Amino acid sequence: MEGKVSPIVADAVDYKGSPADRAKTGGWVPAALILGIEICERLSTMGIAVNLVTYLGGTMHLSSSASANVVTDFMGTSFLLCLLGGFLADTFLGRFKTIVIFASIQTLGTSALALSTKLPQLRPPPCHSSENCKEANGLQMGVLYLALYLIAIGTGGLKSSVSGFGTDQFDEKNEQEKTQMAYFFNRFFFFISLGTLMACTVLVYIQDEVGRSWAYGICSVSMFTAILVLLYGTKRYRYKKSQGSPIVQILQVIVGAIKKRRMNLPYDSGLLYENTPEGSRIHHTDQFRCLDKAAIVAEGDFDKNSSNIRNPWNLCTLTRVEEVKMMIRLLPIWATTILFWTTYAQMITFSVEQAATMHRTVAGFQIPAGCLTVFFVLAILLTCAFYDCLIIPICKKWKGTPGFTDLQRIALGLALSTLGMAAAAVFEVKRLSVAKNHPVSTSETLPISVFILIPQFFLVGSGEAFIYTGQLDFFITRSPKGMKTMSTGLFLTTLSLGFFMSSLLVSIVKKVTGHNGGSGWLANNINNGRLDLFYGLLTVLCSVNFVVYLVCAAWCKKEKVQSMAKVEMEKC
């Protein structure tokens, strides 16, 4: 019977709660249905985000910096709420129910946004000159915020579970399905990019030329259809049982270590508590030894009526302690990748505002300003294709490795984003010189081609292709098996904090450099500001951050080598 594939998937159940039948559940068909809802989520979220800044400035009459902050706060909240979605999925709902519930919330949000852009009572009257513009009132902004943050809640809950639920459809213990899972990750990133590409082209065009309410209505209909399609596959999915929240498990180790902080550690780590099955144990490491105290056996750690029942808030296994250590080791790389997403935020805020002021007509067709982000997405797709078709084969031939390591890809992403900000500063100098020599009204465009912005979109886009895959690889492969969802959430918080950092930086720069409300680096009309200096500041910050990242990456590599060497010595 050796080599025969079991008809039952060991750690999965079907929709009835029975052991999952390999032939009747999982595989590419249900995975494709899950990819469908991901492409609709990207279409909705990015279709709103990439062109929202023009709506806030042109229709709601907010200032340039205020518009940028609304967009970055919206995106930051979306990714931050991934932690909430992951917690609910792991602890209470499971991934499938989490996806359905939060996708429904996102559909409700896009419907509310379509309504807010349709009704004239929910936006200020149009203005014909900058002096007579009336900014949106509290009620109008309140309805807009309600719609946006319903979408943010839906996006956060959905993103936290959709990739995990997709991988649940493949059995890691089966070699054939394990290979299919690798292809699923590639297709997942491709579908994210495809959804973003459709958002930056088709949806932005509909917003500008047909009407925003129509575009957001399309988002609502597409999400509702995707939910129905997802529900159609209920009987075909494989479901994984919830194993408890990693956040609670981490807190148990920290609380246990604090309670026993005055106790002395044993001279031999073998005396620390451990009842994890042999095949799932993690070897002890000497770092963060204060956490080892959570595994010291003390009086009162076990139930008085049963010596086998322990209080997890007093006593943790050594493997659980080592899992927390593994999560802590991710933090230096986590911290030094946040700034990349601050530069990314500029591509969907100030760069779109730049495009709106420039000549965008090609063969009689005027390109919507938000559509410039298509070059960002094309850079991602071209970089991925270049990496897969050229870099990976070369590395396999010369080094015997499948491409760059996770840390090398992250480094490339940070370097390219730094170059992208430098290019943005240089080309903004050129745009401002044209604006100074050719004063125009707010409704007219400058006599300079919008295509000079392509390098900054392309460089940051290529950087995302490297850093996104590098971060995903780093956080998943270097985290404990039982904390994969937690580590994915940790990865997504870098996006969230990057957007929030952008909002904070804009507010600080606006306050420090602004005078009389409209002047300073980030003026209400960017033709009167110094956006080039803001981009220059980001270039300097990115350069410093890159140096710090290299130090952290060297430490990470050293610790990994030492850990592997210790494991080999213990085996010997």
Automatic annotation (TrEMBL):
Transmembrane segments: 74-93, 100-119, 139-158, 188-207, 213-233, 330-352, 372-395, 407-427, 447-468, 489-509, 533-556
Keyword line: Membrane, Transmembrane, Transmembrane helix
Mode of membrane association: Multi-pass membrane protein
SUPFAM superfamilies: MFS general substrate transporter (SSF103473)
Subcellular location: Membrane
Residue runs in coiled coils: none
Top-level taxon of the source organism: Eukaryota
A GO cellular component entry from the record: membrane
UniProt entry tagged with the keyword Transmembrane: yes
GO terms (BP aspect): oligopeptide transport
Molecular functions per Gene Ontology: transmembrane transporter activity
Record InterPro entries: MFS_trans_sf, POT_fam, PTR2_symporter_CS
Location, primary (coarse class): membrane
Recorded family membership: Belongs to the major facilitator superfamily. Phosphate:H(+) symporter (TC 2.A.1.9) family. Belongs to the major facilitator superfamily. Proton-dependent oligopeptide transporter (POT/PTR) (TC 2.A.17) family.
Name of the protein described by the UniProt record: Protein NRT1/ PTR FAMILY 6.2
Organism (species): Ambrosia artemisiifolia (Common ragweed)
